Amino acid sequence: MDEKERHERGMAKRRKVLGNEWVDRANAKKTAFNEEFQELITRYAWGEIWTRPHFDERTRRVLVIGTMIALAQWDEFRLHVRAALAGAAFPKPTSRKLFYNKRSIAACRPPTMPSRKPPR
After folding, report:
1. Same domain, 19 and 34
2. Same domain, 38 and 83
3. 13 & 59 share domain
4. CA distance 18 to 80
5. Is 118 contained in some domain?
6. Number of domains in the chain
7. DSSP3 helix / strand / coil % (the chain, rounded to 5)
8. What does the angle CA 50 – CA 54 – CA 75 come to, to the nearest 5 degrees?
9. Is 120 within a domain?
10. Are residues 68 and 104 in the same domain?
11. How many contiguous H segments (helices) and E segments (strands) does the chain have?
12. What integer is the mean pLDDT of 56-78?
């Protein structure tokens, strides 16, 4: 697959996962500074990683959401949770259990929190 095809597949997957409205807004905000990065993300993350056959879309979403919890990337976490709910990837009762699992947040969040006392 060439770079153009990878970009086209990536854009199609990005639109499917995040929604046209989100992608259109992101594209409208491209600048000379971030355009190359946006193109790279579309080709590599969306066109290469998200299109691999190893996981179905639901499993991939769960992995991404769990990773965002572990890394305390709350903006990306909210983005992927909203997209999953809007796309009906998860039924509402299941999503509440999955997305707001206190054990996941308790297990992953503390390592990313600043220390209260400086190390000795």
Report:
1. yes
2. no
3. no
4. 7
5. no
6. 2
7. 70, 0, 30
8. 35
9. no
10. yes
11. 7, 0
12. 84
| Cβ neighbours around 99 below 10 Å, total | 20
The model's pLDDT over 82-108, given as tens digits with 9 standing for 90+, comes to 888 887 556 665 555 555 555 666 666
Shared-domain flag, residues 45 and 78: no
| Cα dihedral: 46, 37, 28, 8 (round 10) | -40
24-57 tens-digit pLDDT = 999 999 999 999 999 999 999 999 999 998 888 8
Rounded to two decimals, the pTM is: 0.71
Structural tokens at position 74: 């709350």
Q: Which domain holds residue 10?
A: 1-54
Residues 78 and 105 in one domain: yes
Positive or negative, the CA dihedral 72, 99, 82, 23 is positive
Residue 73's pLDDT is: 85
